[in-house]
Amino acid sequence: MATIEISCVEVWREISNYLEGEISPEMRERMESHFKNCAHCTAVLDGTRNVVGLVGDGKVYQMPEGFNKRLYKKIQELP
Amino acid sequence: MTESGLRANEAELIQSVCAGDQEAFYELVRPYERMVYVTAISIVKNPADAEEVAQEAVLKAFSKLASFRAESKFSTWLVQITYNEAKMKLRKARPHLYESIDEKQQTEEGDYWPRDFADWRPIPSELLEKDEVLRALENALNSLSPLFREVVTLRDIQNLTIRETSTILGISEAAVKSRLHRARLLLRDSLAPGIDGCWGKGLAYRKVRPW
């Protein structure tokens, strides 16, 4: 069966769900066929995936030095 | 440790704490220290306030531990307490600002159209060692409205599931997905590296495009 084409706007709406794997197999197929022919949407997808990877890297919002020690001390001071 | 092994181990620690062993409490919360801190800073935004909120949340968890029900995960419960503490601190400190940011800016209505189609090459995570890249990322996160920053923090920074995120925020899973979507595209737009690809070349971060 031929894949039904979808527009860029429809693709953008589903980019995040696509990365989550939260879309139907039919939608996935349509989006993948769209990405093959659309550099703009591929750029949006790659950039969004990049952002998700970077914020999940564990380096943003580093804990202040000594945080653990001070927290431990607070717990020890509990009545 | 497997999920069920972890839960059994936590259940044992919780019993010990309830029986009066305070040391066991530190062991119980230690794996989630960063989670607690990151949740706090994503809401209050500055490290000193975040540390204070994190400490208050942990102490509150201690005092409420007997009311913890094992049907939820301990980590989810702890993050939920932290989230509420952070919100409370913000409300006390800046009642007007809090209201205006939360209610009026960056709404969820309508579709979001990407503003920038710059073609990104993958950004290697080693680049995050560079201060300016990390700062650009944190600035982009801090520029999001709280509605969107919360979901990104829980789902993408802390890697909680959609369901856990929805439990903590008290919103539907559909709302989590829709906010997450908007937040990720907003972040992408504000970090769009521009056509010269300065991220990959070791040049200082600057947004090349004017829009």
Structure, described:
The complex is a heterodimer of chains A (79) and B (211). Chain A is an all-alpha fold. Chain A has one domain (8-76). Chain A has four helices and no strands. Chain A has helices at residues 8-20, 25-37, 39-55, 67-76. Chain A is elongated and about 70 Å long. In chain A, 24% of the residues are buried. By secondary structure, chain B is an all-alpha fold. Chain B has two domains: 3-104, RNA polymerase sigma factor, region 2, helix turn helix motif (Rna Polymerase Sigma Factor, Chain: A); 115-211, Arc Repressor Mutant, subunit A, CATH 1.10.10.10. Chain B is 64% helix and 0% strand. Chain B is elongated and about 60 Å long. Chain B starts with a helix and ends in a 20-residue tail after the last helix. Classes of the chains: A mainly alpha (79), B mainly alpha (211). Chains A and B meet through helix 1, helix 3 and helix 4 of A and helix 2, helix 3, helix 4, helix 7 and helix 8 of B.
Q: How many structural domains does the protein architecture of chain A include?
A: 1
DSSP strand (E) fraction of chain A?
A: under 5%
Within the CATH hierarchy, at the fold level, what is the topology of the largest domain in chain B? Rna Polymerase Sigma Factor, Chain: A
Structural class of chain A: mainly alpha
Rounded to the nearest angstrom, the distance between the terminal CA atoms of chain B is 48 Å
Return Rg of chain B in Å: 19 Å
Which CATH C-level class of the largest domain in chain B is it?
Mainly Alpha
Radius of gyration of chain A equals 21 Å
Give the name of the CATH superfamily of the largest domain in chain B: RNA polymerase sigma factor, region 2, helix turn helix motif
| Helix/strand order of chain B | HHHHHHHHHH
What is the averaged pLDDT score of chain B?
82
Average of the residue pLDDT scores of chain A: 89
Shape of chain A: elongated
